[in-house]
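@here heads up, posting the sequence + SMILES for the zinc ion run so it's all in one place. Ping me if the SMILES looks off, I pulled it from an old spreadsheet.
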Amino acid sequence: MYQLRGPRVRPLTVDEITKVAINACHILKFSSPHSYRNKKVRYDSAFEGLSEYAITVNPIDDDEWFDHTYDLTEGHCDPENRLINIPNRIFLQACRGEQHGLMVMFHELGHLLLQHKPLLHFSAVPPRAEEDSEWQADFFADVMLRKLGFDPEFCQLAFNFD
Ligand SMILES: [Zn+2]
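bot reply: prediction finished. Complex structure tokens:
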């Protein structure tokens, strides 16, 4: 049986998530077909542009982040307020175009753009990966990273379920 890692949400197929992630690349102006591997991609200004979509990125001082989370998590989002909280060092990694930082940013963005709201699911039917908000956000980040020319390893892991 699939073990949920996050709140159970409306199931989304791989195709549905891929569509939203590719759209997100356009929103972030990563859409030029020749720009993905171009070092001039300005990740920092792309993230600033999220404010046009009423999404706020809130980098938090690393020490303060540690005090609140013991560094057990590297990102947090608040879908109600369209807010992404992220430790400053991870945000700077993302702005420099480093894969790990981008993965965290895209994962949190995935939660917002996939409109994750926990459903009250008192269901006798066991959950599937496609209903796991964490699986969906990871898959979303994976699609964006691949589109930008990175080579994440998520897919091999993700399709070993059931
Ligand atoms: Zn998550």
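MO: The longest strand covers residues 56-60.
MO: One more: The longest helix spans residues 99-113.
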